[in-house]
Design brief:
12 helices, seven-stranded mixed beta sheet, alpha+beta, 440 residues, single chain, four-stranded antiparallel beta sheet
């Protein structure tokens, strides 16, 4: 069920006061009444991401040789099972674990997968396991509880580590908006920016200087930009002999960028330096939301787009010469059947199609059904970027496009773009969370 952006951010008052909202299909801003001053940027010493949990108290511990596991009974009435081999593999002593690097030292070739336990000693806050060779492993109660193999605990921890909860949307979305400068200078705003990108998939940053170099600053805020064959940054303008259809004034249909790579960039940054005087409106759609609609309305089309591998290609000369080939399903699913990535760019979809001839027509019919759903008014958002706007979005989820525009000498539309990877963005998000909130 759709929840409004203000409701989603209601628990973070500081960020809420900085957020502006852009109504779908409009280009006017609803300014917040409260002005919040910038804070100086803080450089943080890297720390391991920690999961905060209440103190866990151990009631008793039992070892079961037949099942090769230890059962820990907690004071809340629950219990957790830990296999012997897992405990030995995760010994935290200096001989087996390098705490300064948070890394395992014990080689897997030295691990006895059929290991037994000689003795288990417990207190209310830790357990000590004595192995047959008299090696001793100690485990803190909170460390153990966080790593419980219970399904509910695993699901909770995975959500905290990867922010798997997503909020689908249609044309009713009010695009979440924040100050470009505050994202650069204020850790809380930067944290909410990345968190919103993960949950909603898109955020518009306002009032960046209308000059080149601003997306590079966002890259530094995350960590670094992703270099591609188009360079670290690239200029979206109407160019003679364009080596990409984006470098023309024509319409760009909804697409994700760079499916010609086997691993396309996770995040895209688009800074409007100069908007077109006539035309050039931006369009965005939540590809996950529409994919789930397709699953309900046309299961066979959904099955085809999640099973057939499509060839993509891109070749030319830019940062250097390149000749790319890849294969992707249009809709990627995880092991639970959840939509996790959309791979589609009609411009670079190859004419080579590695499928039996009888599958060609069913594929095109399925693809058209998916695209037609995207362009339904209830799914599509159209708006015009202003000078200083930076549109940031999840390139694995959000399909974007552009209406055609009038290009004249000295008055051409100009955007600067760049890519970042989700690994770096999630790393920055976790580091910011640890610096801001610690173990609270």
């Amino acid at each position: 069920m759709w929840r409004s952006i203000p409701k989603y951010l209601i628990n973070n008052i500081i960020f809420r006061n900085r957020v502006e909202r852009l109504p779908a299909g409009q280009n006017s801003l609803c300014r917040p009444k409260q002005e919040v001053s910038l804070q100086s940027y803080r450089h943080h010493i890297p720390t391991a991401f920690k999961i905060s949990m209440p103190i866990s108290v151990i009631e008793k511990v039992e070892a079961f040789d037949k099942q090769r596991c230890i059962t820990v009974h907690w004071d809340d009435g629950n219990h957790s099972q830990y296999p012997y081999v897992w405990l030995r593999d995760n010994c935290q002593c200096p001989q087996c674990f390098l705490s300064s690097a948070k890394a395992r030292k014990l080689p897997i070739e030295d691990l006895d997968v059929n290991i037994s336990v000689e003795k288990v000693i417990s207190t209310d806050s830790k357990i000590s396991v004595v192995w047959p060779d008299q090696h001793i492993s100690e485990f803190d109660s909170n460390w153990l509880k966080t790593r419980s193999f219970a399904q509910t605990t695993r699901k909770e921890i995975q959500q905290k580590l990867f922010l798997t909860d997503q909020q689908n949307w249609g044309s009713e979305l009010q695009i979440p908006t924040a100050s470009f400068e505050e994202v650069l200078d204020n850790d809380e705003v930067a944290y909410q920016w990345l968190k919103t990108l993960r949950k909603i998939g898109v955020m518009l940053l306002k009032n960046a200087p209308a000059e080149k170099g601003q997306v590079a600053k966002l890259g530094e805020r995350i960590g670094y930009l992703r270099l591609t064959f188009y360079g670290l940054t690239w200029q979206v303008e109407d160019k003679a002999d364009a080596n990409n259809v984006a470098y023309t004034s024509g319409k760009l249909s909804l697409h994700t960028d760079y499916p010609a790579l086997h691993r396309s960039p996770g995040i895209q940054l688009l800074h409007c330096i100069k908007p077109a005087e006539i035309g050039g409106e931006t369009q965005i759609v939540d590809g996950f939301h529409v994919a789930n609609q397709l699953r309900q309305l046309n299961p066979e089309a959904f099955r085809i787009l999640t099973s057939i591998l499509v060839d993509f290609t891109d070749s030319g000369v830019d940062y250097c010469d390149f000749s790319l080939q890849s294969k992707h399903r249009i809709i990627d699913l995880d092991h639970n059947g959840k939509v996790i990535q959309i791979n589609f760019n009609n411009a670079t979809r190859d004419s080579i199609f590695d499928v039996p001839v009888e599958l060609v027509h069913p594929f095109f019919s399925a693809l058209k059904d998916y695209i037609n759903l995207m362009y339904k008014p209830e799914n599509l958002i159209t708006f015009k970027m202003e000078a200083g706007d930076v549109l940031t979005f999840d390139n694995w989820r959000i399909l974007h496009g552009r209406q055609n525009y009038i290009s004249t000498v000295g008055s051409s539309r100009h955007l600067e773009g760049a890519y970042a990877s989700w690994d770096e963005a999630m790393s920055r998000l976790r580091c910011l969370e640890q610096a801001l909130y610690g173990n609270k």
